[in-house]
Amino acid sequence: MQGEGHPAVEGIPGEDDLYKHFLLQGVILPKILTFDEASKCLSNLGKDESGVRYAYLMISATDMKLTDITKITCFKHVLFVDVSGNYLELEALQVLCEMPFLILLKAERNKLTSAALNPCPYLQVLVLNKNQIVETNDITQPYLETLDLSNNSIYEVRLVSKNLKELKLLELTGNQLTELAGDFPVSTEKLYLGMNRINKIIASDLSKLVNLKILHLRGNKLHKLDGFTAALRNLTYLNVRNNNIRHMRQFRKLACLPKLETIVILDNPVMNMRQEHVGEEEEEEEVDAEEEKKDFVRISLLVMLPNLKRINKELVTPEERDEAFFLGDDKYHEIMEEPSSEEDSLLITATDMTTEYSTETETEGQDQP
After folding, report:
1. Averaged confidence pLDDT in the chain
2. What is each CA distance from 115 to 34, 78, 103, 158, 163, in whole angstroms?
3. Which UniProt keywords apply (predicted)?
């Protein structure tokens, strides 16, 4: 429900104009949700926790400039609360922990600097993306299964397994992480770390995630795949799209993953590694060149990781699997003998620094998404 501002009358600024004025001055005016306003935000009529009576199960008080939502607690049968797009700080959000049957809490786009809510007895989904959270300390929710902290300002992960025993999905996309490191709940099955600045994977930390099935690392700065171990015995899906991986042999380091079936490596320099060879052929059609590069990458991956079932969203065909088997050792040795290394690593680092500086210069003064 949208808050209704009062229009200007005879030269007197309206409510929305006043809010804009004070916001420009860095001042947030108090705005308390009234009982009547909260009542109008109710929806989803259904059976309550008793399974006999009917009640409204959801309240959505979004984009209302609220700083106080205490009145929501009057509706004790509500299971789902969405208070996104307000001016709520952690203290204002704490009142919702008094709700006895709360299952889902969504508080995107507020003024939160911490996610350390008091424990809620039945909370399963907590969505706090696009806030100003910098730390993950002191998050204790005994039944939480999904935690979304994407698009905040988190530099390191410090989550305690015993405080998040049921956590299955952890979303940290779009933060400030520079390493895949820290403390993650052992129960985590899906980990989303895309669009950070990760350039290194710490094996001792990642190896603790023995239940991990899906790992998203898209849009980071990885150029090596060190850090994966056989302890990740349940990992089936890995996305390293749009990183800085330049050599096929890096994927040999994933052979320790017994259940890996799907990998996404698009938009890495390695996808163009066949280009110079193709360019030497006379009158080569561009589409054929792209197809040859694609085939080279797919077959090379299958030689090193024969259990793959899907590469870059496309299923592995029987013909590809046969070709990889036929090429076998010869292709493997060709991959492992690629030139490289310390010099190449220095080149990558210098390139990354130049690119990052250029990007920051171009975007300086622009609004962030």
Report:
1. 86
2. 25, 21, 16, 12, 13
3. Leucine-rich repeat, Repeat
The rounded distance, in Å, linking the Cα atoms of 68 and 96 is: 11
The CA distance from 248 to 333, in Å, is 11
Q: CA 341 to CA 327: how far, in whole Å?
A: 25
The string of pLDDT tens digits covering residues 25-51 is: 567 899 999 999 999 999 999 998 888
Confidence category of residue 7, pLDDT binned at 50, 70, 90: low
Identity at 60, one-letter amino acid code: S
- Which pLDDT score, from 0 to 100, does residue 183 have? 97
Q: Reduce the secondary structure of the chain to three states and give it as a string.
A: CCCCCCCCECCECCHHHHHHHHHHCCCCCCCECCHHHHHHCEEEEEECCCCCCEEEEEEECCCCCCCECHHHHHCCCCCEEECCCCCCCHHHHHHHHHCCCCCEEECCCCCCCCCCCCCCCCCCEEECCCCCCCCCCCCCCCCCCEEECCCCCCCCEECCHHHCCCCCEEECCCCCCCCECEECCCCCCEEECCCCCCCCECHHHHCCCCCCCEEECCCCCCCCCCCCCCCCCCCCEEECCCCCCCCHHHHHHHCCCCCCCEEECCCCHHHHCCHHHHHCCCCCCHHHHHHHHHHHHHHHHHHHCCCCCEECCEECCHHHHHHHHHHHHHHHHHHHCCCCCHHHHHHHHHHHHHHHHHHHHHHCCCCCC
Torsion of CA 276, 277, 279, 282, to 10 degrees: 160
Residue 329 has phi, psi (to 5 degrees) of -60, -35
pLDDT tens profile 97-149: 999 999 999 999 999 999 999 999 999 999 999 999 999 999 999 999 999 99
d(CA 98, CA 119): 9
Closest by CA to 134, choosing from 186, 79, 172, 95, is 172
**Bridge partners (DSSP) listed for residue 105:** 81, 126
Residues 6 or more apart whose CB falls under 8 angstroms from that of 93 comprise 69, 83, 105, 107, 110, 112, 117
